[in-house]
Write a structure and sequence with these properties.
CATH topology of the largest domain: Rossmann fold
Number of helices: 17
Family: Belongs to the class I-like SAM-binding methyltransferase superfamily. RsmB/NOP family.
Largest sheet: 7 strands, mixed
Distance between the termini: 60 Å
Shape: globular
CATH architecture of the largest domain: 3-Layer(aba) Sandwich
Subcellular location: Cytoplasm
Mean pLDDT: 95
Domain SAM-dependent MTase RsmB/NOP-type: 170-429
Strand order of the largest sheet: 7-6-5-8-9-11-10
CATH class of the largest domain: Alpha Beta
Function: Specifically methylates the cytosine at position 967 (m5C967) of 16S rRNA.
Radius of gyration: 23 Å
Structural class: alpha/beta
Protein name: Ribosomal RNA small subunit methyltransferase B
Helix content: 40-55%
CATH superfamily of the largest domain: Vaccinia Virus protein VP39
């Protein structure tokens, strides 16, 4: 691609953030749509800026509202998001302040608003002059919990109600950059062997006793730097997510359904544990189903992959009965906010009731396809009881042949451990 086709990356970041906050797209989708406009050398910075702005959005908005008597709206709204980007660079990156201001102002031309360059330049330079006092004012802004915690009030209230002693731990973890966890393919290397390969590449890591294949990197790296990644030696997967396949306990020769399977991390883990299991991976999103195939190809594994809706299994199941089912149910994703900080601003309180009804509907409609004596693992990446322990209590009460096996597992996000996840293991009597 000709270099001239690349836009100012701050302008692209502003477009991505506009797509999230004004149009309701996920940040991952917004970035993917702009991917071919970003030079490879700039992709990491684009990710850093966009995810960072989403993480600390209320703080940045606070400064703009204190610097401008009237915020930018209408056709000029995208420049509001450009200002967020300029402020984030000044506050949270190593980019020199003069460069952050200059590059941000330069992006105004790419956004076809050259007449407003003076406004953007003036606001950013005024922030540099008032930075210390504005930071202090932000810290003292006791009226706005949304500012102090960087979380919307509806979510904060739910966390306080569910975890009166731990909500601050969850909030603090959500506001951090996530750790990078790897799942070693034990069919290729032991954890210690793979750590030696990492060490040769000067990549520091730690293993985790409870999960025999898990490694946490001290510092995140691009997957291209991971030894033998392309050959399937290792997969990037959060620690909490790695419990799914172990709780499912797949065995060779069994019929196994991975429902809501995209992008395929848990599907491939099942096949690492039981290479000759007959796995059907199903997801409702045709675009994301392609990711399952890509992951299976990289790991040289085979599974049947279908596009299908968990609400209508009769359309794709062909009457098959399964020994084990992993249902990674659609959820609020409130346990993975540190990986997807846009969740805080895309979700609404009303979404939770809708999601719990969808989860229950999928669970009840997929249950008849589990063999008697079979195991179903219900999983979410949520920390909200309505989607988790209360959901399972409701299902057990209404389903006489369903029995809970072992304890319910609710993982909360912590700085050096895994994301927020929930698991329930159910057996069909």
């Amino acid at each position: 691609m000709n270099k001239k086709s690349y836009q100012n990356i701050r302008a692209l970041c502003a477009k991505a953030i506009f797509a999230v906050l004004e149009e309701g797209q996920s940040l991952s989708t917004a970035l993917a749509s702009l991917n071919n406009q970003v030079a490879d050398k700039d992709k990491a910075l684009v990710q850093e800026i966009c995810f960072g702005v989403m993480r600390v959005l209320p703080e940045l908005d606070f400064y703009i509202h204190n610097l401008m008597s009237k915020v930018l709206t209408g056709k000029n709204r995208i420049l509001h998001y450009l200002l967020l980007i300029g402020l984030y660079q000044i506050l949270y990156t190593r980019i020199p302040e003069h460069a952050a201001v200059g590059e941000t102002v330069g992006a105004v031309n790419d956004l076809k608003k050259p007449q407003l360059k003076g406004v953007i330049n003036g606001v950013l330079r005024e922030f540099l002059r008032q930075q210390a006092s504005l930071k202090q004012k932000f810290q003292q802004d006791s009226k706005q919990q949304i500012s102090q915690t960087l979380h919307p009030s509806w979510l904060l209230n739910r966390l306080k109600s569910a975890y009166p002693e731990k909500w601050q731990v969850i909030v603090n973890a959500n506001n951090q950059k996530p750790p990078m966890w790897l799942r070693v393919n034990l069919n290729h290397y032991s954890v210690s062997e793979y750590q030696q390969l990492l060490e040769k590449q000067q990549i520091a890591s730690e293993s985790f006793a409870d999960i025999p294949c898990a490694i946490r990197l001290t510092t995140a790296v691009n997957v291209t730097k991971l030894p033998f990644f392309a050959e399937g030696a290792v997969t990037v997967q959060d620690l909490s997510a790695q419990y799914a396949a172990y709780l499912l306990a797949p065995k060779n020769g069994e019929q196994i359904l991975d429902m809501c399977a995209a992008p395929g991390g848990k599907t491939t883990h099942i096949l690492e544990l039981a290479p000759t299991a007959n796995v059907l991976a199903v997801d409702v999103d045709a675009n994301r189903v392609k990711r399952i195939d890509e992951n299976l190809t990289r790991l040289k594994q085979h599974a049947q992959v279908k596009v299908g809706d968990g609400l209508t299994p009769e359309k794709w199941c062909d009457g098959c009965q399964f020994d084990r089912i992993l249902l990674d149910a659609p959820c609020s994703a409130t346990g993975v906010i540190r990986r997807h900080p846009d969740i805080k601003w895309l979700r609404r309180d009303s979404d939770i009731t809708q999601l719990t009804e969808l989860q229950y509907a999928i669970l009840t409609r997929i249950w008849p396809y589990l063999k008697t004596g079979g195991t179903l693992v219900y999983a979410t990446c949520s920390v909200l009881p309505e989607e988790n322990k209360l959901q399972i209590a409701r299902f057990l009460q209404q389903t006489p042949n369903a029995k809970q096996q072992g304890e319910l597992r609710q993982f909360l996000p912590t700085e050096l451990a895994g994301d927020g996840f929930f698991y329930a293991v159910l057996r069909k009597e």
